[in-house]
Amino acid sequence: MDDKIYKDSAIIQKVWEKAAITDGKNPDLLRKDYAGAWIKRDDYNKLSTYGWQIDHILPLSQGGTDDIDNLVPLHWRNNKSKGDDYPRWHTEVTSESDANILKNRLWKISDGNDRN
Prior knowledge:
Elements: H1 9-16, E1 30-32, E2 38-40, E3 52-56, E4 71-75, H2 76-82, E5 88-96, E6 99-108
Antiparallel strand pairs: 1-2, 3-4, 5-6
Protein name: HNH endonuclease
InterPro entries: HNH (IPR002711), HNH_nuc (IPR003615)
Domain HNH nuclease: 26-80
């Protein structure tokens, strides 16, 4: 997990806007991360039910940058479980209806050479 805490409100907002909008929910207040976990705008950098952090898709430790294209909003528990893993990692929170639930999921960035 990247320990970097962003203070720049413009960067925080740009990353927030990458989270998924859900019908019937105010996108200024509540969205979902890519794993489907609910995150709350005001809970940035809080270890709460809807807390979230800014994650580096390609971790800094592996040559990633702070470029906005490499940053995504991620529920804090998903960010913790992802850690510096890349190109495969796990998340542990998603949602069911209006509630976050624990569910371990595997994610993988394909290099185009994968064979299934």
